[in-house]
Amino acid sequence: MEKLKLQIYSIQTLCLHKKIYKFSLLIFLCSIIFFSKTSCSTLSFNFYGLSCPSAELMVKNTVRSASSMDPTIPGKLLRLLFHDCFVEGCDASILLEGNGTERSDPANKSLGGFSVIENAKRVLEIFCPFTVSCADIVALAARDAVEFAGGPNVQIPTGRRDGRISLITNVRPNIVDTSFTMDQMINIFTIKGLSLDDLVILSGAHTIGSAHCNAFSDRFRVDTNGNFTLIDPSLDKAYAIELTKQCPAGAATSTITVKNDPQTPQLFDNQYFKDLIQHKGLFQSDSVLFNDVRTKERVVEFANDQDGFFTSWSQSFVRLSVLGVKSGEDGEVRTSCSVIN
After folding, report:
1. What percent of the chain has pLDDT over 70?
2. What is the pLDDT of residues 157-168, one digit of tens each?
3. Contact 38, 323 (CB under 8 A)
4. How many CB atoms lie within 10 A of CB 116?
5. Helix runs in 20-72, H state only
6. Taken in order 69, 71, 77, 80, is the CA torsion positive or negative?
7. CA 104 → CA 78, 79, 82, distances in Å?
8. Which PANTHER family did the record assign (predicted)?
9. Catalytic one of 17, 83, 206, 212
């Protein structure tokens, strides 16, 4: 086992040397963002370099294995990070089970990817017991999920601690609903210390993943005679009609899912922004990004420049991943991600 650990460490060290040029830029980002919202100074790159040098590689291998077997995993892991960080900060509070926890809120019932996090945690507890937090695993897994799906590799700082509080009452005031207006989304992002630009960029996460029919079914209507009515004129009519076929009237719209991006649903690319220009944003909260003069220009820019989107994504993702992180006595390192120690 010691030989295996040394081999893993050697591989990771080589990878780190190849990517070292990226670190200075992201350290600079970390030093200038959200001093009032995060504890960036408690985090560092290669935080587990001595205590668990193969930690990030173990998480990546777990994500790669799960995603290879189930192509829906990357989208689920990315969404899991959003729902964790926007409520109580990036502290793995979304993973805690029990009555009255964040996870029990109806808005979080459709979340997935929990087993991937638990599997990674089990491996880490074997090689590095009581060392790697569930909060870091969630952030790393989302980062690795994007890369697996074809997106950019992003170096993020680690050292997050796991929170001990998870309340259902904290969910709704802190998450973005798919029916939100631009002003409502801006308000939530501003509270979190994120910018209007971050809102556009991070919405690009919808280039992968899927959604339940009841998240967008109020944008059109089909009566009992099969007559179609487009309720939201910002949605392309032909696309809306196609959605009605995937979400037939009378079906259990809370169980049927539709791909967020109808063109390249499993590829993390800039197709999402191209879809918005074609009025094929699945959610109302997607469509407003192209319809609002405050964000339209950025949507067009990213639709025409995938490299530019990837560069911007890398920066905004770091900002997302350090929201409200816990440190010291404010958190712990759980031995099981679903319960506090």
Report:
1. 86
2. 999 999 999 999
3. yes
4. 26
5. 20-32, 55-69
6. negative
7. 19, 16, 16
8. PEROXIDASE 6, PTHR31517
9. 83
pLDDT digits (tens, 9 = 90+) for 168-221: 999 999 999 999 999 999 999 999 999 999 999 999 999 999 999 989 989 998
Q: What pTM did the predictor assign?
A: 0.87
Weakest mean pLDDT among 67-71, 224-228, 255-259: 224-228
| CA dihedral of 60, 135, 143, 170, whole degrees rounded to 10 | 140
Tokens of 192: 């979190």
Structure tokens at 121: 């945690």
CA distance 276 to 102: 31
Active site residue 83: yes
From the list 340, 341, 334, 329, the residue with the least C-alpha distance to 124 is 334
CB 59 within 8 A of CB 142: no
- The DSSP bridge pattern shows strands 220-222 and 257-259 to be unpaired
Give residue 328's pLDDT band: very low, low, confident or very high (50, 70, 90): confident
How many CA atoms are closer than 13 Å to the CA of 210, on its beta-carbon side?
Answer: 17
**Other CB atoms closer than 10 Å to residue 46's CB: what's the count?**
18
Q: Report long-range pairs for 116-121 (Cβ below 8 Å, ≥24 apart).
A: 116/62, 116/63, 116/66, 116/73, 116/76, 116/77, 116/141, 117/77, 117/80, 117/141, 117/337, 118/336, 118/337, 118/338, 119/62, 119/66, 120/58, 120/59, 120/62, 120/63, 121/336, 121/337
Using the structure block, give the residue that is written with the tokens 């996090």: 117
